[in-house]
Records
---
Amino acid sequence: MSFELPKLPYEYAALEPHIDARTMEIHHSKHHQAYVTNLNNAIAGTDAEKLSIEEICKNISKYPMPVRNNGGGHFNHSLFWNIMAPSTGGEPEGELLTAINTAFVSFADFKAQFAAAAATRFGSGWAWLLVKDGKLAITSTANQDNPLMDIAEVKGTPIMAIDVWEHAYYLHYQNRRPDYVAAFWNVINWKEVARRYKAAL
Ligand code: MN
């Protein structure tokens, strides 16, 4: 069994003007595809072929670096595509909003802390909203690491993420990462984040 590039749940242009179609097309069909191909090559003929990507991530310290980089790349991007949707522009509701207010005081404070995590991650990486010991937390990781990994500084179940590699925004935003992060709030699929929050509890 080998991993496959998941279909995007919307068209490449669906997140315009916040994330442009060309960036989405290259990001999904080239970058994510490369992580999938390289992951399959890295685990070919090993027991990891029988495992889910989550199971691989949770024991990532047992694997060589190409599995960490490409397995993380596959998990992270699969989550990223699904927690976005065409111009939702909305805000979290219900239990997720209550949990955000409990953990970060208010939705505005949460946005500020999440944006700061995305802005201050030096070089390539990700910022995360995760469930850790039943509570929400924010962290960031380098490269394609994620909070599922046993090597992560802050471990838990990720329920939302932003990719801050330059390939995620450079065509449209160039060096203006904060502008990309600000635009990201318009395309978050809060229903999917809430579903992942409930599942993580
Ligand atoms: Mn990426």
---
Amino acid sequence: MKKTPTYKTGFVWHEIYMWHDTSGFCGSDRANAYVQPESHYESPEAKRRIRNLLEVSGLLGHLQPIEAAAVSEDELLLVHSPEYVNGILAQRQRLGQVDDETPLGIASVDIAERAVGGAIAATTAVMNGSVNNAYALLRPPGHHAEPDRGMGFCVFSNAAIAGAYALKHLGAKRIAFVDWDVHHGNGTEACFYDNPNALTISLHQDDWFPRNSGFKEHVGQGQGAGTNINIPLMPGCGHGAYLYAFEQIVIPALRAYIPDIIFVPCGFDAGIEDPLGRMMLFEDSYKAMTERLMTVADEVCQGRLVFTHEGGYNPKTAPFLGLAVIETLAGAKTGIQSPNLDLRRDVGCQTLQDYQRQHIDQLLAYFQSVDNCPLN
Ligand code: ZN
């Protein structure tokens, strides 16, 4: 370790998260007689390898282990409808499914509850000050799960439930989400769409998944109008474009909104070699975005940051992206990097392109015209 941690960083992990069984599914290609069976994209491998690199790097021993809290229906109902919760719980201890691409294995309902418990426990530890920040390496992911329907490999809306829990039980008055998974955080958005006490920000590939979702015009409704910020980015955005969007939109919005805690639904599928995204981020990008969030969190909410793990489907790159984020959160430097890091840095168009700048400037101008938007 080149620099030992300066922050107390909580870490939620349990091997049981990896036992959420998504096998028996043919990936995004619909099964037919000519599709050879393959493992589901949302399989344990990429996530388990993040945890393993943390161990091998020596960082894991410096993180504060956090155990998942027990979860009852009350917590699930903080954001989900009784009909949806009952429909999922009825599939306990049997093979089931949330939707066509979101299978449930025998133990998946119990594991999904434990993922919620992990997000709540991380949030509790950060809010009560026993750690400075936390990373919850959860499965199944949560950010596509809406109040009354799950989708996109997500069962319960982990980060949204933890946020609602912080508002109800942990003394938070306002919460914020910065979702940088390459897919739109439609579930988190839907859970707080009319709630002015939650600022939901999502950076994602424009009109990718779910389709017809995540547009800039979707700014919230009713009391919550103005507190949903969608930053749809065109495919091919890299380090420069994301950092520009951070500087122009994400950070000023957080600074103006002044939340008591910031949640980061954290996907690594905006990474350059991810099979389910068409973006170009790499280790330096995730590190830089984490640093900027830590700086603004220090300014507005005593550094309180909770990362909940979402997508990221390349088992070769995800461990290094995870290490980059978590060592930054901990203020540590392991000195360990992917042997391919220089290749990723050297890809053309990683710097901000003019057409990307124009697009992001137009988004900012739009948000500045929206009533009750923190950027107005
Ligand atoms: Zn994703």
